Amino acid sequence: MCRFVAYIGKPIMMYDLLFKPKNSLINQSVKAHEAEEPLNGDGFGIGWYTPEANDMPGLFVSVRPAWNDRNLKYIAPKIVSDCMFAHVRAASISPVNELNCHPFHYGNYLFMHNGDIEGFPKIKREMVRHLPENIYANIEGLTDSEHLFALFLHQLEKQRSKDLPTKIANALEDAIVDVEEIKARLKVKEPSYINVCVTDGDTIVAVRYVSDLSLEAPTLYYSEGAAYTCENGICRMKKSKNDFDKAVLIVSEKLTRYRSDWHEIPVNHMVTVNRKLEVNVSVIQRTLNTAAGF
Amino acid sequence: MCRFVAYIGKPIMMYDLLFKPKNSLINQSVKAHEAEEPLNGDGFGIGWYTPEANDMPGLFVSVRPAWNDRNLKYIAPKIVSDCMFAHVRAASISPVNELNCHPFHYGNYLFMHNGDIEGFPKIKREMVRHLPENIYANIEGLTDSEHLFALFLHQLEKQRSKDLPTKIANALEDAIVDVEEIKARLKVKEPSYINVCVTDGDTIVAVRYVSDLSLEAPTLYYSEGAAYTCENGICRMKKSKNDFDKAVLIVSEKLTRYRSDWHEIPVNHMVTVNRKLEVNVSVIQRTLNTAAGF
Amino acid sequence: MCRFVAYIGKPIMMYDLLFKPKNSLINQSVKAHEAEEPLNGDGFGIGWYTPEANDMPGLFVSVRPAWNDRNLKYIAPKIVSDCMFAHVRAASISPVNELNCHPFHYGNYLFMHNGDIEGFPKIKREMVRHLPENIYANIEGLTDSEHLFALFLHQLEKQRSKDLPTKIANALEDAIVDVEEIKARLKVKEPSYINVCVTDGDTIVAVRYVSDLSLEAPTLYYSEGAAYTCENGICRMKKSKNDFDKAVLIVSEKLTRYRSDWHEIPVNHMVTVNRKLEVNVSVIQRTLNTAAGF
Amino acid sequence: MCRFVAYIGKPIMMYDLLFKPKNSLINQSVKAHEAEEPLNGDGFGIGWYTPEANDMPGLFVSVRPAWNDRNLKYIAPKIVSDCMFAHVRAASISPVNELNCHPFHYGNYLFMHNGDIEGFPKIKREMVRHLPENIYANIEGLTDSEHLFALFLHQLEKQRSKDLPTKIANALEDAIVDVEEIKARLKVKEPSYINVCVTDGDTIVAVRYVSDLSLEAPTLYYSEGAAYTCENGICRMKKSKNDFDKAVLIVSEKLTRYRSDWHEIPVNHMVTVNRKLEVNVSVIQRTLNTAAGF
């Protein structure tokens, strides 16, 4: 089912985020605790933002398990960033391959997914049918995730709002509506599990979504507060005293045992974190209606 | 701790051996049942013999986990052989790397190991010090296992017996004695866990050894009988009716739940299978004495 | 532009074919002689047929250059086959990736390509639009080559001839017609360079094709005779004395300097080699007409 | 013979250094101009310094050719550093492997080599015999280069000078003397070609050395001036107006056609660049004497 971590806030070292927490993403690659399948050893990827290269994100992916990748151990300590994505994969249908590793990239956007659009092979061609050439050409792999990302990018071009966080949030919801509509049209009854995270480096939008509310949705949490810190092997989100230090984490499963640090995102809800690090949680109404239709 | 499978007997397909049993080596790469650490995802390797290329073995290794390697799925069905080795790795100290994947190869020999020579860094240079140039030059990786293989090859050159199975068995025992003697000389008190398997394509010798009998040794089993067969998803060793079909398996853990199919190799014992597929189990006396000395 | 070798005839060792000729495919991976771009270091692949596994082909691909792949050196001497494909890649648009390595595989078919369908991004979606689900689902990579293979597989299902070599040849021609028709319909004026080879293990069909005869087509040769042999470093096709030993090679460039060993396949012609190793060379009339139309 | 680039000075983007010059290191990986063997496609590596992680260098290596590595294209634009090493490999004896890729790393040191210590297999064990445990344990690969680095690290511990640049320069010379002495002692007559570069992040020392002055030494150049800049596809070292912008490059071959930008380092000379970016060129006297002895 994959596992991921997203961070936005005061610049911290990628290594601290990935390797140091008790239930770090690296440890989750060996043995996740809040997933049916504990093993996430089918490749991994990291993406991050720094002012260099016109704010384009950096990206490093590998088909090797995250726990034994030598390059990752050397690169992660040299990445200091205010916005980072990291993902460890448990492959379902699509082969283990560099081009199927999350996060996916387009322009200044990064996108990662933990879930399954079941029945994807039946709707794949319909998903790409109306994409503009540039967005279609950016699809390099075979995953349902990357195709959902393409729908998101297409919807993003259509948004009228002038507020970027609103545009991103609406485009993501629209893309999920697209998926459910295409499925309905093609009589695909399998459910979609869409825990997804997208960013442009300034805003993060995350969704916890399932087509059928009677099914169990994969977990998704966020944590907010002052700077996320790792000291003497203990990593915690400090309580916020001032706005300067604020940080937000969005994670597939809790990185620590301190339950009070983590807020569960309700099923079929969306979390938006803007550049002021304000967190907004809202329900995804429309997709519910669409998916409920069959 | 790694897991391995060795096969000798009537030619069978590598795919049937690796993928089909209930507790196949591929399944053990995800979740081994008779090891403390269930995960063996740090690369793998296969070796096999056919008449081509002057009986030299074929070899295929990868740093990717065995469970998701696309090439393995394509190659294994095309290998039909009367003598095969396969190994999935759980790395201890040495990095995950092609050159650290078992089985190791020299001339017509293959060698694989499940265990640890603890304290290896302290004795490594002493282990290679007296090796002849050709054997030393063959060491390409960093593992204790490959260095033990080099000692074995050196001891093999010194054997006087004219019976090849006896030579191989004695050389393997001598190599383990070498390790314990070097450790004693350099005051290295850490134990050795040596479950090891070596073959020249005609004879297989396997050892289950631990320096200190009060410690628990990793498991090692053998199975003998008529042809090993996989039918309708059930893989079993058939009872032997004639010699023509005979086959012997040596495995880190039982491939099936049929307990009667598997004989546990006693700790500090050695199993020799000759080209007539006769199985001989004998105690390793000398190494015991050496290791007991400290 | 890529380079390839296809062999059908008396079983020989893959190693002899790939490594031993003066201008072997391995040497062509470093420095091809009959191509504008001499370097073919962007991955490679081999496919071969043996009776095992219901005649399904074996396959081994890698993103590493063919000249330094350790596994290839170990596997090639253990492959003895009567029908083999090998390909070294010089990537054009599509990324260097396992899934973009030739030969491509479906059922008992293998397919490899040396050339470019220029303007491919513009016709890609149209190429897959009418494919049956099973053939569409088999497309794992991004290359024009694999998409042409899918069109071929689709056309193969439509053939009425009862003679398999004829079916394969016609389906290949029909697939090329499809490409040119789609290009014409979508007003894509870029030319196609299609040197392609397909086999089911019994029959090989190869095409040397270019959309516009005023353009230079990449070279393609065949060689036929008695057994292909490598002795004392010299590899030659022996003259045929009896049918038993016959063999046919199809190659992007001449493997040796013996010009008389190699027949140039004329531009826009097709070579069919059936299971009796009869070679038939014929013109590709229809595609010429189509492509000439714009 | 490999190719490398070292940079120290005003922080610049790794991408500009590696990809933009006319004869960039990436282009040299395909086709070097000042080497007998133009192809350097057997893996590559980059190392760099930033204040993070206690000034330890970052490192990224791959067995894939530098020209087609997707990760490199994403990482290089995000690296902005005042001290960078980059190396593309043409393997001689040692296998193409991550652990054989330069630069090699120990503590805050990076080391890379373009050349060959011929006869290395004969002196390898003698080279490591007297190494302290920590330095010996750091050797992970098989190259002559990494073993020379180990001798350098050992000599570094013995230096008495209090000036770090002097210590590094002397240790490097001492290590080369060590090699020549071991060769003389073991009657190894093959020459050493040692174009080598070492840094601690503040000082770079480079050597152009050959055992026998009648042999041709591989080229080595340096360039100094104001900031190295790439504008409109033209990369040049600007003339220095003030000290603030100063930068120094050390390269296997000239990156541009502007001959005046590049100073050839004379054979058996050493270049030291200190943290003030002062460049000192001096002869290597002692090693000459030693090597001249046989």
UniProtKB/TrEMBL annotation, chains A, B, C, D:
Q: Where is the Glutamine amidotransferase type-2 domain?
A: 2-294
SUPFAM superfamilies recorded: N-terminal nucleophile aminohydrolases (Ntn hydrolases)
Any single Pfam family the record assigns to this protein: GATase_4
Which CDD domains did the record assign?
YafJ
Q: Which PROSITE patterns match?
A: GATASE_TYPE_2
Q: Which InterPro entries match?
A: EgtC-like, Gamma-glu_amide_hydrolase, GATase_2_dom, Ntn_hydrolases_N
Note whether Membrane occurs among the keywords.
Answer: no
Q: What keywords are annotated for this sequence in UniProt?
A: Glutamine amidotransferase
Q: Which PANTHER family match?
A: GLUTAMINE AMIDOTRANSFERASE DUG3-RELATED
Q: What protein does this entry describe?
A: Class II glutamine amidotransferase
The source organism is Adhaeribacter terrigena
